[in-house]
Amino acid sequence: MSELVNQITALERKVRESDEARQVADRLWDATEDVLDELRSLESSFYTFSSDIDGFIGDNDYPAVERAAYEIQGSVAAQRLLPLVRRAMLLLAVREGSSLPALGVMESAPEVAPVDAAHPSLTWEELMQDSERDLASSEESLRKIWCDEGDEAELDEHLHDARFEAIRDRATRAGRQVIALCDYIAEELVPELVRCTEQLLIEDALRAVAVIDIAGDEAPKAYKVYEAALSEQYEQSPGSLGAMGEHLMQFESWMRSQL
User: Fold this and answer.
1) How far is CA 155 from each of CA 137, 231, 236, rounded to the nearest angstrom?
2) Is the pLDDT of residue 8 over 60?
3) Does the predicted model carry a pTM greater than 0.70?
4) Which residues fall within 8 angstroms of residue 98, CB to CB, at 6 or more apart?
């Protein structure tokens, strides 16, 4: 009888140990997935950035675009991503029974050659060069259309409209550059970062962190080009900015009244 009791007791102990081990395994799985999900969620976050910025640009809400640009930069900064990647890889290695990655090699992101970080970019000089080329083509077409005697007034009016439209197009294109950057990060860079992390490819994951960090740094630069283009549009026609233009005009009027 005592032998049977001992067998039952031993069996109960094994069951408890098995349950505890299963609970530990479940907690480890959940902890690993939580960290990975934080990395995976970057993709949807950047699609949200893209959608929000599109609305901000439509409203000429440049302060909101600026805030979003710096949020983009912060969300993919290497100093934020490296700890996540380290935790994810350590947990994955333990969960899968792989050898633990050396923490020393995961303290910083590597240097990346410019050719390996080919994210969308647009300088003010590039924007102006493209705009002036397109405007010259438009002006040439208008001069061919309004070329008869007595067409001078019509030609001047259409040239004026074309030049203002070029200014408006510069602001639109500059704003959409920020959106293009968001889409590029969401579609190209985040999936690569997640893939390398999930497969415990340490060097590739660190390189992915470096590349996405550089892309994030481009967001404030893209905003500055947009700000300059929108300022140019405001100087030419404050009313063309809608409610934002009216708000700025009221602010300028108030500032003058304080002098």
Assistant:
1) 15, 27, 20
2) no
3) yes
4) 92, 200
